[in-house]
């Protein structure tokens, strides 16, 4: 059981209060004299750059040597390791970039100082504000005229509805069976027929 008001203890025995955790690094801070006298320089690495294999030359020489199968080509690659030359690799990359190409974003066009001295930008802003207030005043006047539906209908009367004589299409082409003087077309058809 843990003690009251204290966390449960683990099984590790910790060192005393004078123990410092972490890696101890001795400080050498001698000021300007040490900085000038003892330069911490980094020595350059002298690793030789390994050039990639030149498979075009190796394939050509393997065919000249009489290799025909994949196994013979693999053995030829293992024993005749030909690397690319530095000049041909450099010439490949240099030829792709145009000579007159410039990198980066183009500079922003300079602000004309004459317009700044004459407060031209302030005048343009004032003209835009005046135009905006004119438009807002016109909108307020239109809203003031249209106070309710009655005043709106007086100024804008609704369009007159045209009376439509619509009939069902199935009753349009039906002939009457009774001949009368009211239907002269039917009487004429019966005389002709």
UniProtKB/TrEMBL annotation:
<dbReference type="InterPro" id="IPR029147">
    <property type="entry name" value="CFAP77"/>
</dbReference>
<dbReference type="Pfam" id="PF14825">
    <property type="entry name" value="CFAP77"/>
</dbReference>
<protein>
    <submittedName>
        <fullName>CFA77 protein</fullName>
    </submittedName>
</protein>
């Amino acid at each position: 059981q843990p003690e009251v008001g204290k966390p449960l203890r683990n099984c590790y025995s910790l060192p005393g209060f004078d123990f410092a955790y972490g890696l101890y690094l001795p400080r050498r801070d001698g000021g300007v004299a040490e900085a000038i006298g003892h330069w911490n320089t980094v020595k350059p690495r002298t690793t030789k750059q390994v050039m990639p294999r030149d498979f075009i030359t190796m394939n050509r020489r393997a065919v000249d040597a009489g290799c025909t199968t994949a196994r013979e080509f693999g053995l030829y690659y293992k024993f005749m390791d030909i690397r690319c030359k530095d000049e041909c690799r450099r010439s490949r990359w240099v030829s792709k970039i145009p000579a007159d190409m410039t990198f980066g974003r183009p500079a922003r066009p300079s602000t004309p100082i004459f317009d700044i001295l004459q407060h031209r930008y302030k005048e343009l802003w004032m003209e835009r504000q005046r135009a905006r207030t004119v438009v807002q005043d016109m909108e307020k006047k239109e809203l003031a005229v249209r106070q309710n539906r009655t005043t709106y209908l007086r100024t804008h009367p609704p369009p007159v509805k045209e009376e439509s004589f619509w009939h069902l299409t199935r009753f349009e082409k039906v002939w009457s069976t009774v001949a009368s003087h009211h239907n002269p077309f039917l009487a004429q058809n019966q005389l002709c027929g």
